[in-house]
Design goal:
The protein is α+β, with helices and mostly antiparallel strands. It has 5 helices and 6 strands; from the N terminus they run ααβααβββββα. The strands form 2 sheets. A 3-stranded antiparallel beta sheet has the order 1-3-2. It has a 3-stranded mixed beta sheet with strand order 5-4-6, with no helix packed on it. Helix 1 packs across helix 2. The longest helix has 13 residues.
Length: 140
């Protein structure tokens, strides 16, 4: 992703394009898979953990990224593909590999419909499958 495209994407979401924000967005875009804070910290040695976390928090507020818990209590972040305000209708299943500890988006697999008891109102849903990814299962 070019810097100009990154700046335009941030501005479309109402985020001022600072150097740290541009770097985090480019990194998330270039990896093409969800990343947690520790992974971003490793890839961005010039930024401290608290700076990365502040950027991610701002990105969450402005629908630049979505977050999900990977089943280990670790938050993962992935880019929101909608321009402008996000309706969060792109929910999908995530897969966590227990061997390589990477998370994958399963955009082709849809989250099953869940019927809640009367009086309950869902605002979001998270669905994580744990197992071995193809790369790790082939190494056995």
């Amino acid at each position: 992703m070019e810097t100009k495209e990154t700046i335009e994407r941030l501005e479309a979401k109402g985020v001022k394009p600072t150097a740290n924000r541009i770097i985090v967005l480019k990194t998330l875009h270039d990896i093409h898979s969800p990343m947690n804070l520790k992974m971003l910290e490793t890839r961005l040695p010039s930024m401290d953990k608290s700076s990365i976390f502040r950027v991610l928090s701002l990105f969450l507020e402005h629908d630049v990224v979505h977050s999900f818990e990977d089943g280990r209590g670790v938050m993962n972040y992935e880019l929101c593909e909608h321009a402008g305000h996000c309706s969060h209708d792109e929910s999908h299943i995530h897969f966590y590999c227990e061997k390589c500890q990477r998370s994958f988006c399963m955009t082709e697999a849809h989250i099953p419909h869940v019927c809640l008891p009367e009086g309950f109102e869902a605002h979001s849903i998270s669905f994580v499958i744990k197992g071995l990814c193809p790369g790790c299962s082939n190494k056995r």
